[in-house]
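Chapter review: from sequence to fold.
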Amino acid sequence: MKNTFVALVAGIALMACSPSTEPTPVAPVEPAIAAPSMPDQTPPTTPPATDPALADTCNMAQYASLIGKPATDAGVPPASASVRIIKPGDQVTMDFSPTRLNVDLDTAGVIIALRCG
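The token string follows.
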């Protein structure tokens, strides 16, 4: 009788240690009645000032109101060593000058972006 009991306990222990071939049942997840609102996870619209290519080192903020206006507008600074007017298809050098203002135009000659470089 004692040998039968030891064999039974050993068999149960071996079954407990062996991996199961059946998938583990997963309890269904019930939807919450009212989920708490999550804060907007969109990145900030203001670029960090740590990247010199994104910092306002060329005073582009003073020209921000020109976006959407034609390049012939009176407030647009003329092309010079510190201002580069870039039309679609224009070839520009890849040198970076943090104090230079780049004025990007669309095909109609309207300002679509300002950036330093």
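Two observations follow directly from the output. DSSP finds one helix and three strands in the chain. The beta strands are 83-86, 101-105, 111-116.
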